[in-house]
């Protein structure tokens, strides 16, 4: 068995490349928002630290509870609903007039 043998399975390959695309989008999103905070709004390191913490809190507090809940429901429906919610909050990020609105959108992200 080689490192690339799981990619021969079509369902795994689709999931892997979907996750790869999603992770690339997360990286671009993080970089763009950090640039917005640091250079466009000219806020200091405290705002960047709060940005990182605001992104991490839902993963720490909400994700463990949701992962148990999702195992009891239809995962495909949940994934589509989460993608729609993420699209709405991403649109909200575009129209954020200040850092506090941005943080509230990020927390619900």
Notable traits:
single chain; 109 residues; 5 helices; 78% helix
How are helices and strands ordered from N to C? HHHHH
Net shape: globular
The largest pleated sheet is described as:
none
Helix coverage percent of residues? over 70%
Q: How many discrete structural domains?
A: 1
Q: Low-confidence stretches at least 5 residues in length (pLDDT < 50)? A: none
Enumerate how many helices there are, as a single number.
Answer: 5
Strand content: under 5%
Gap from first CA to last CA: 38 Å
Care to count the β-strands? 0
**Overall average pLDDT:** 88
Radius of gyration: 17 Å
Category by helix and strand content = mainly alpha
Subcellular location: Cell membrane
Protein name: MFS transporter
Main location: membrane
Membrane topology: Multi-pass membrane protein
């Amino acid at each position: 068995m080689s490192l690339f043998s799981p990619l021969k399975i079509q369902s795994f390959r689709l999931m892997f490349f979907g996750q790869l695309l999603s992770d690339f989008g997360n990286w671009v999103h993080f970089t763009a928002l950090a640039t917005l905070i640091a250079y466009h709004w000219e806020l200091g390191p405290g705002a960047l630290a709060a940005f990182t913490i605001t992104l991490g809190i839902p993963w720490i507090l909400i994700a463990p509870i949701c992962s148990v809940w999702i195992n009891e429901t239809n995962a495909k429906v949940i994934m589509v609903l989460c993608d729609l919610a993420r699209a709405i909050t991403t649109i909200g990020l575009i129209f954020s007039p200040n850092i506090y609105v941005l943080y509230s959108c990020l927390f619900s992200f």
